[in-house]
Every structure is written in structure tokens, then in C-alpha cells.
Amino acid sequence: MEPDALFAAPAAPPPPAAASTGFGPAAPDAPLPVRMRPAHLDELVGQQHLLAPGSPLRQLVSGDSPQSVILWGPPGSGKTTIAHLVAQAADRTFVAMSALNAGVKDVRGVIDAARTRRRAGGSPTVLFIDEVHRFSRTQQDSLLSAVEDRTVTLLAATTENPYFSVISPLLSRCVLLTLHALTEADVTGLLRRALTDDRGLAGAVELAPEAEAHLVRLAGGDVRKALTALEAAAQSATAVGQRQVDLATAEQAVDVAAVRYDRAGDAHYDVVSAFIKSMRGSDVDAALHWLARMLVAGEDARFIARRLVIFASEDVGMADPSALSVATAAAYAVERVGLPEAQLNLAQATVHLATAPKSNAVTAALGAAVADVRAGKGGPVPRHLRDAHYQGAQGLGHGAGYQYPHDHPHGVVAAQYPPADLAGVDYYRPTQYGAEREVAERVTRLRRVVRGGPADPSPPSTSGEEQV
Fold first, then answer.
1. Residues forming beta bridges with residue 71, ordered by sequence position
2. I need a labelling partner for 134 at 20 to 30 A (CA). Which of 61, 154, 212, 360 fits?
């Protein structure tokens, strides 16, 4: 043994074979989504906001920057594709692992090997962690020092909001890149590319327009799902000697019936209208059918949630004040949870709104008030209601004579609150349905006191039958 060898840097461990990590070249019999992965960054579709010259994504793929990156986006938006592009760089060691089956020991093993390789003058290491949101806090903590001193360049992918699923110290050490769901035009373009590209179907089949629209609708922005369905449909057509994939073949191949629903056409508005009118008519079963029709057709869940929030005030209103809370909670769940799980939140809100007592009194009241304003009714703000907090307001008489309701026994005083020409006008006319029956009794007593009648502190009656 040479004496100097005792002090030599340890040999760098060999980099793992790309094929062993699943990030090598696609085999000829690989699934269509794998074969059609972009060969270079300019083939990436739907993320133009990340592809500007000199952007962090371009620097990461080219190897010009060792900055760690977290990719956040829905399934099929290109996170794994970007990892494949990074893996192609010859001057880096690329190691991939999934948070589903990797532990702290695995992470530390990669970091130790990267540190040894770095000290020996070897290539830098890029560590790709798929579904990083599934890592525990301890597992994420194990990455901090290595990311901090750039022993490894972390490339992490997640479908969950990283502000909730990734610890703050790790998030602060990375650049967060948000990927958007692909549009229908994006998915259509990729399907057409796969039909003709030598990596794909190489012109072996054609796709009928109705079948194409069905596959795009089915994908819901997930290009992986669209390409998988296309491959299955193409194989079915080829097996029976057909060159064209028609709608029936596409339906049979993916075992999902095409829903007659055009998100940009008349059917879109017809189905939404039927959904709203079924809830308004208290037919919970019909409402659930139309909800399912929209979900299966790939309607934007945020659009459905917005309609529920509007309906809660427009058609339920004060007959069930909790309806608005239920609808807004469902909308929040759509944003935070996403599909497919948020379908349950939308269904729960639909059931609540369809079965709730109905009142459009709030809608009618606002409409009447707006009509008067547009008609030019309504004079100046009464002096006793004007802002009296600034210097000089008292000299103008602002606030003079205002009575503070909390200083009075029942918390209500006789006073003029509307402009003079609208005094005594009733905009809100509560119904006798649901909780609004009690509101109606309270409004009657409040108007009597505010408009100068005698106070009546007695509690409202709760007698009478509920609307069903």
C-alpha cells in the first residue's frame, strides 16, 4: 500500500444507473405516456409561465444553477416529466425516490453518498423526491443540512399545497414553482402529437373528432390519463381491424360513457340551469344527478362551488342562514382538497341546499333597493349619521343627535336611518319559511321601534309549522 493512499479521499460511489430508477430511456414497449415524454424542455406543454429564458426551471434542467426546487401542481401537469429532463443531464448524478416507500435511512444514504462523491471531485447530485408531502416532519428535517450546503440539489414534487405540507425551513431553502393544470387545448395538442409522432402511434390510427373530445373531457387536464386512454382505444381499434378510433371504441376502451356536455356550449348552460332549478325545487335526487353529470363531464369544480355559494343566498337566504356557511365551506374544500375527494363536499352542500327551506326575500330586497337607487331615489346622508370623527365635523353638525343603541335598555332606539325620501320603505319582506319565520316577527318589532312606535321586548313566537 502506498503511504499517501492512507490520506487519499475515498473513492466516490458509482452513480446509480438511470434505468434502475425508472428515469432511463423509454423502452419501445413502454406505455404511451412514457414514450411521449418531452425530449427537451421546449416540448413541455402548458407551463409557459415557467419557460422564460433564464428562468429557474431552465437553469435547473440545463444544470446552470444548483438551486433546489419544489414543483407543485395537479396530477398530469408535468412534474415527473421535468424530473426526467433533469435526469438526462450527463454532468450530474440523478437519484430518484418516492416518499411512499423511502425512509430517513434511505435519504441519509443518498446524502452520505453525495457528500463522499463531492469530496472526491465527482459530479453533483440531484435528489428527486416524488410526493414529498407524504414525508413526515422528521424525514423532511433530514434533508435540511444537505440542501442548505448544497450537498444535494433537491427536486421535489407534490400535488398538495406546500405551504401546508412542507416544513417552513425546507420550503425557505427552495424555489417554489407552481405548475398549472393543462387546458383542453393543451391536452388536444398532445393527443394529436401522439397520433403522428414516431415515439407514439406513428400514424397507425386516426381519432374521430367525437372520440377526441371524449378523451379530452375524460382527462380533466391530466395528460397522462388522456394518453393512457388513447393507447387503450387505439389497441381496441387495431384488434378489430379498424383504422379510425370512433366514439364507441373510445368509450369501450376506457369503460366510461361519453357525457353529452359541452363546457363551452348550450349543454353546459342547460345542465347548470337544471342543477340550480332542481335545488330550488327541493328535488335532492335530481340535483345530485345534475351534479354527477357535471363532475363526470369534467366541469370545473370551482364553477360548481361558486354556483352553490350564490344559490345559498339567492334561493335559501334567511330561511336557513347556515346554508351560506355550508356552501362557502364546500368552496373552500374545493380549493384546499381538490378533486376527486372534493366531490363529496360538493355533494354534501348540494343535499343541504336542496333540502333546506327556501326564501328569495334577500334577493328581492336587494333588487328593490338597487332599483330605487338607479331611479335616483335617496337624498343626502342624515346629519346625525355622518362621520363625526374628524376635526371640524362638529361645527358642521355632523353626528349631532345620534343615539348610541347600546346605551338603551333594548339596544334599539327610534331614529331615521334611510334618506328622507325613503323613510318607511320596506325592502326586506321575510317569508314564513324555516328560520325566516322567526326573523319576520323580529323585523316587525324592530321596524315599529325604530320608526317611532313603542318598544316590545318580548321574545318572538316560535309557534307554527315548518316548511318542508
1. 157, 177
2. 61
Return the sign of the alpha-carbon dihedral for residues 388, 393, 398, 400.
positive
Q: Is the dihedral of CA 179, 181, 185, 187 positive or negative?
A: positive
The pLDDT of 402-416, averaged and rounded, is 79
Q: What Å distances lie between residue 229 and 174, 181, 236, 248, 259, CA to CA?
A: 35, 18, 11, 13, 16
Amino acid at 462: T
Tell me whether the omega of the peptide bond preceding residue 340 falls within 30 degrees of 0, making it cis: yes
Q: Name the β-bridge partners of 69.
A: 155, 175
**DSSP for residue 231:** H
Query: Residues 156, 95: contact at Cβ < 8 Å?
Result: no
**308, 350 Cβ separation under 8 angstroms:** yes
Where would I find the H helices in 199-260? 209-219, 223-239, 247-254
Cα gap 124→193, rounded to integer Å: 35
Quick one: 185 exposed, middle or buried, by C-beta within 10 A (0-12, 13-18, 19+)? exposed
> How many percent of the chain have pLDDT more than 90?
33
Question: Cα–Cα distance between 263 and 285 in angstroms, integer?
Answer: 23
Number of alpha carbons in the 13 Å side-chain half-sphere of residue 102:
25
> Which tens digits make up the pLDDT trace of 127-174?
999 989 989 998 999 999 999 999 999 999 998 889 888 999 999 999
pTM: 0.52
What distance in Å separates the CA atoms of residue 400 and residue 392, rounded to the nearest whole number? 13
Inter-residue contact 378 to 372 (CB < 8 Å): yes
Whole-angstrom distance, CA of residue 310 vs CA of residue 327: 9
Strand partners, 206: 244
Q: What is the 3-state secondary structure (H, E, C) of 88-155?
A: CCCCCEEEEEECCCCCHHHHHHHHHHHHHHHHCCCCCEEEEEECHHHCCHHHHHCCHHHHHCCCEEEE
| Distance, CA of 88 to chain centre | 32
Q: Quote the CA–CA distance of 70 and 157 in Å, as a whole number.
A: 6
Residue identified by cell 314564513 is 432
Beta pairing class for 125-130 and 93-98: parallel
Let me know how long the chain is: 468
Helix, coil or strand: residue 430: coil
* Sequence-distant (≥ 6) Cβ neighbours of residue 148 within 8 angstroms: 173
Cα 74 to Cα 187: distance, rounded to the nearest angstrom:
14
